[in-house]
Amino acid sequence: MTSNAVSAAPTKRGQSLALNWTNVAFFGAIHAIALLAPWFFSWSALGVTLFLHWLFGSIGICLGYHRLLTHRSFQVPKPLEYLITLIGAFALQGGPIFWVAGHRVHHLHTEDVDRDPYSARRGFWWSHMMWLFYVQPQVFDYDS
Q1: How many CB atoms are closer than 10 A to CB 78?
Q2: Which of 57, 59, 100, 139 has a beta carbon 3.0–4.6 Å from 117's, enabling a disulfide?
Q3: Higher per-residue pLDDT: 140 or 37
Q4: ∠40-89-54 over CA atoms, to 5°?
């Protein structure tokens, strides 16, 4: 994946990261499709969208991936844990193993910009979502 890669997103030591073209294309397509919304607007679709955003984001990611799986803040019966994890997977932020591992690496290396995949020291946009658009082989093993 490093060949034919466009360099961007400078790291702390000045080297650049390669773009993750799969994620760039996916998120670009989602936003291009969203531009059609004014021509296909309906209140019921907006209601469904808001509900799914709450379900996948709040329940799947915040409650499931973050509090339940990453930090083990609470316990639920296994079938409910699997359901919440499945809901988190529908948020399209990666599978539970990838998400939990990345978040634990983030907490482990908050003082090391090069090893923290979501370091806020690289700026608000990087920590919010720009990290999704770049390959970070020093943090994530993309081959497994």
Answers
A1: 8
A2: 139
A3: 37
A4: 55
